[in-house]
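FAQ: What does a multi-protein file look like?

Like this. Sequence, then tokens, then the next protein.
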Amino acid sequence: MENYLLDWANLLLRWVHVITAIAWVGSSFYFVFLDSSLTPPEDEDLKKQGVSGELWAVHGGGFYHPVKFAVSPPELPKHLHWFYWESYSTWLSGFALFTLSYLWSAGTYLIDKSRMDWAPPAAIGAALAFLVVFWLLYDGICRIFGQKKNGDAIVGGLVLVLVCIASWLACHLFAGRAAFLLVGAMIATSMSANVFFWIIPGQRTVVRQIRTGQNVDPIHGKRGKQRSVHNTYFTLPVIFAMLSNHYSFTWSHPQNWLVLIIMMFAGAAIRQFFVMRHGYKLGRNPNPLPYALVGVVALVGAIVWMRPAPVPAPAPVAAAKPATVAAPAASSASTASQAAPAAAAPAAAGGGSDFAAVQTVLEQRCYLCHGAQVQMKNMRLDSPALVKQHAQAVYQQAVVQKLMPMNNATQMTDAERALIGRWFQDGAKVP
């Protein structure tokens, strides 16, 4: 019953998280587009009111005419729409989902003993520290360098270095799947913190100054805009990190930290293209196509670099012997083949964690899709080194979730799953 309720909680939280994330990303992308597409007003009355930019758009059978005031409008309306619950709801639902999926079962999903053999409380504390420490360092970089000459470039470079360090650390401390998600959650936490600590407080200050008749300090708008721009560049890297848990060939790669960095860099570069393309159409900046090309080159480079190893040529087959001699051998081989799964069961029942027994199970149940001839999901398990590399994924998919083999097509038994589970819990040791 507990697992049943946890599955429902996971499904509903994931549903809410995706919905709120769509709302947040959608509004963020729209306002970035709006700022990039505004043109100086032509109407003299709008100029007198302090309008710095306007846009005419058509959508859903109607015409829209949004305008932007340089610092503040002459007066504020009674109803002013705020954009912040999209961000807060996304973070709250995401953190709840992360807690339910990873922190609640830290020993299964957060910890990979072949990387770091530590107690679940310590791993949970370290994971939470990633969220907090990254925000503090990122915020400090923005405070110190953000308003200086070439501040945007300096902040961008330092944040890139910070993300690379965090990605390397996460992938060496946690299970690969959890590490990717943790880096995404780390960046997403800073995005929501930008809204909570900077963007909304700055806007509230401006509103208060307008309503009390004070002179509006433009620094609040500048800081809010800076953090908002950071958020839009963070978006595609975060989305990749969140989607990567479905593709084990990314987070189970031996250099998974480098895979994560390359993919996030490609996402940020491609996002730069979309941010600048509107200004390019208006003649405000050069053609941003090179940014998109850099992102695509990074993606293609990752695909080529991570391609599966060539399948070795099959060993030569010995000449067939006369049927009268071969019959007993064939019978013996058939008997051995049929006995192999059964041989694994006693090992499981006895509580052993011998890799040879695990390898026998993998040969019988997994090589069909993850062997020399076929590597589904770019995963190959026909050598001790490869099994070690993919141990976390094998454990999660075959033992915890029982999703593999697909539809249990090769009839893996519960005893065999238990054998793999004990082997993994003992440290996933291979010869």
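And here is the next protein:
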Amino acid sequence: MTDKFNAPVREFIAENFLFRADADLDDNQSLLESGVIDSTGVLEVIAFLEQTFGISIADDEIVPENLDSIASMTRYLASKLPAEAA
């Protein structure tokens, strides 16, 4: 279950990258393509994920399939922390 990861990831993105209070962000929306985050933002997201969830993200895991949307991040976290997701 990825629900427990979704809320903190969504909150981090909203607080750090969305500058309009009424901004609506779909879980599957590409954060890079929509301009929500840039390459520096990706590094901030990585640092957040590592610190918040106690994981280490390897260089070869820094790919859009893992980090380009809220949904992809929650799936990635669930795969890294399967016992936590259950």
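Q: Is there any per-entry metadata?
A: Some entries carry free-text notes. For the entry above: Residues 3-17 form the longest helix (15 residues).
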